[in-house]
């Protein structure tokens, strides 16, 4: 599972100032858009295209991978610029933040701090990321649906057992041996 957010400068998209709910987002122009598209096509080719049933475990696994990735690529950054809230690394230009500048590969990152730790208290509430919350909610709903299906199957079995007992009592009371 992958979540990518990007806006293109110009036209109606120019009014979008907070792509993906982030305070700072990447703006691309001209050749950068072409490079991003080329890179995206290469990524898509590598993706598994087989259709698989999505279940709660798969969704939670993807969310766990995302959570484990936050801060991981920045582990080599200098201590004052390390962030457990960042997907990617600020690398050589930490003072500039996550600029998305195509000329500086290391600044290609997404800083989720504004969403998951808005008061800078050292918290990490990933449910504050809108797309993360939607996927987590979908996993919860799948679990609820599975639990309801199991409960319904159990009730169906109990109802069948009760119907068999009732039929047996009826046949016994009427003197009939079985269904005729």
UniProtKB/TrEMBL annotation:
Summary of the function given for this chain in its UniProt record: VSG forms a coat on the surface of the parasite. The trypanosome evades the immune response of the host by expressing a series of antigenically distinct VSGs from an estimated 1000 VSG genes.
The opening ranks of the lineage are: Eukaryota, Discoba, Euglenozoa, Kinetoplastea, Metakinetoplastina
What are the record keywords, sorted?
Cell membrane, Glycoprotein, GPI-anchor, Lipoprotein, Membrane, Signal
Does the keyword section mention Ribonucleoprotein?
A: no
Q: Name one GO cellular component term.
A: side of membrane
Q: What kind of membrane protein is this, topologically?
A: Lipid-anchor; GPI-anchor
What's the protein here called? WGS project CAEQ00000000 data, annotated contig 1201
Record's keyword annotation contains Zinc = no
Task: Tell me the ranges covered by the Trypanosome variant surface glycoprotein B-type N-terminal domain, including all copies.
Answer: 1-160
Q: Which domain of life is it from?
A: Eukaryota
Where does the record place it? Cell membrane
